[in-house]
Amino acid sequence: MKVLAITGGAQGIGRAASLFFANAGYAVSIADTDVAAGREVVRMMQSGGGRTLFVRTDVGVPAQIDRWVAQTVRNLGCPDVLVNNAGIGRRAPFLDLKTRDFDRVIAVNLRGTFLCSQGFARHMAKRRKGGAIVNIASTRAFMSEAGTEAYTAAKGGIVALTHGMAISLGPLGIRVNSISPGWIETRDWQYTARAKKPVHSRRDRLQHPVGRVGRPEDIAEGCLYLAEQAGFVTGQNLTVDGGMTVKMIYEE
Fold first, then answer.
1. How far apart are the first and last CA of the chain?
2. Would you say 159 and 178 are in contact if contact means Cβ atoms under 8 Å apart?
3. What is the DSSP string of 47-100?
4. I want to staple 45 with a disulfide (CB 3.0 to 4.6 A). Which of 22, 57, 166, 218 is the partner?
């Protein structure tokens, strides 16, 4: 049985990816800070007969990453696929952004991606078939709103880290790619007690050439593609945004 390790796998994009890979026959190891949401996803996967593991993990804390890596390998085996999805933001006016908040975003989003990749790549490198790493970046790496500098810097760093890792890990049989989601609606992919039905206006939909706002399933499908069907693809960033970043939008 193939194994997926995923950070932030309890809600939103991570929840969708966890369930997609489980349905594709993977055992799934989830790292997340939300225990209730994590346990709920575990129950959902186990009800379908899947093997799964949840470890409460703050990827901003290196020791907790080490514990998750060790427990995953011990209980499920070396992952075939790692999805670095965990991410946080700290919105604040640029002149008021606190150093501690900037550092926390970088620690979780960027350093966490590096450390999880390093930890699992050490195990992937020991076997002949290598593995695949998918990093969740963002279209915010290439376009911005005011007050999002910490998040933007972290996501831009993930895109650069991706191609750097692809070169370093390629000789070990490990492919590394990133996905940059656009507007992905996640309110209905939360812990059940907090989930809400999303409502989008016609204007929201028309910002996207495909005619709708994105769904977590769109990113999960991209992760599965890069993991299983993209054997000649590495060091690339896949933008999944319904065409939003190529559409010019004028104020009416």
1. 54
2. yes
3. HTT--EEEEE--TTSHHHHHHHHHHHHHHT-S-SEEEE---------GGG--HH
4. 22
Taking the alpha carbons of 118, 161, 76, 13 in that order, is the dihedral positive or negative? positive
Distance, CA of 21 to CA of 44 (rounded, Å): 13
**Given 151, 191, 225, 250, which residue is catalytic?**
151
C-beta of residue 214 within 8 angstroms of C-beta of residue 181: yes
45's tokens: 């996967």
95/184 Cα distance (integer angstroms): 28
pLDDT on residue 252: 53
Q: Contact 150/102 with Cβ under 8 angstroms? A: yes
Entry pTM: 0.95
* Each residue's pLDDT tens digit, 87-139: 999 999 999 999 999 999 999 999 999 999 999 999 999 987 899 999 999 99
d(CA 161, CA 165): 6
Question: CB-based contacts of 168: which residues, under 8 Å, 6+ apart?
Answer: none
Average pLDDT over residues 186-195: 85
Q: What is the pLDDT of residues 25-51, one digit of tens each?
A: 999 999 999 999 999 999 999 998 999
Residue pair 175/230 in contact (Cβ under 8 Å)? The answer is yes
Q: What average pLDDT does the chain have?
A: 95
Tell whether the model's pLDDT for residue 11 goes beyond 90.
yes
Domains of the chain: 3-246 (3.40.50.720)
